[in-house]
Specification:
single chain; 200 residues; Actin-binding Protein, T-fimbrin, domain 1; 8 helices; 46% helix; elongated; cytoplasm; Transgelin; CH_dom; muscle protein; acetylation
């Protein structure tokens, strides 16, 4: 990548806001999950944003993570025997992970850009993608998730209801409150002042 000098003014303000979004506690939880999901062979990063970025930068750990969420025999990302050393190969490996994560069900808005990880531009976005992936894995509950299910929130799922014909017909007899009501206050039994006196 191109060498960049220090950021000044508004660029520095924007970058510092992005860096403040990075969550160290979330990093610990994600590292625990990745190690539980992939095994101890992936190692552990040095603590901190930079250590986390260096650990994930070549795309191998991410590829192993997404492959572990699928049943044996189906691996969406091909992992080379030796970790890639060339920049474009590492970025290609990250791109393969992103494609596999999207195929798994992570929505496009939750997926980080390759440069967010590779150049450490937005490591909070990387955390968001991994959180979305973990939440989907817990929600699917297909036996491929390893780790504590409380680390991630379950996604809302469709709860389809079935009604019988008689239940549907019964619903037509009820007047919805949006249409007004035939119960409640009325003028029956009310009188206004004295009745009119008719004298003959």
């Amino acid at each position: 990548m191109a060498n960049k000098g220090p950021a000044y003014g508004m660029s520095r303000d924007v970058q510092s806001k992005i860096e403040k979004k990075y969550d160290d506690e979330l990093e610990d939880r994600l590292v625990e999950w990745i190690v539980a999901q992939c095994g101890a062979a992936v190692g552990r990063p040095e603590r901190g944003r930079l250590g986390f970025q260096v650990w994930l930068k070549n795309g191998i750990v991410l590829s192993r993570l997404v492959n572990s969420l699928y049943p044996d025999g189906f691996k969406p990302v091909k992992i080379p025997d030796a970790p890639p050393t060339m920049v474009f190969k590492q970025m290609e490996q990250i791109a393969q992970f992103l494609k596999a994560a999207e195929d798994y069900g992570v929505v496009k808005t939750d997926i980080f850009q390759t440069v967010d990880l590779f150049e450490a531009k937005d490591m909070a976005a990387v955390q968001r993608t991994l959180m979305a992936l973990g939440s989907l894995a817990v929600t699917k509950n297909d036996g491929n998730y390893h780790g504590d299910p409380n680390w991630f929130m379950k996604k809302a799922q469709e709860h389809k209801r079935e009604f019988t014909e008689s239940q549907l017909k019964e619903g037509k007899n009820i007047i919805g409150l949006q249409m007004g009501t035939n119960k409640g206050a009325s003028q029956a039994g009310m009188s206004y002042g004295r009745p009119r006196q008719i004298i003959s």
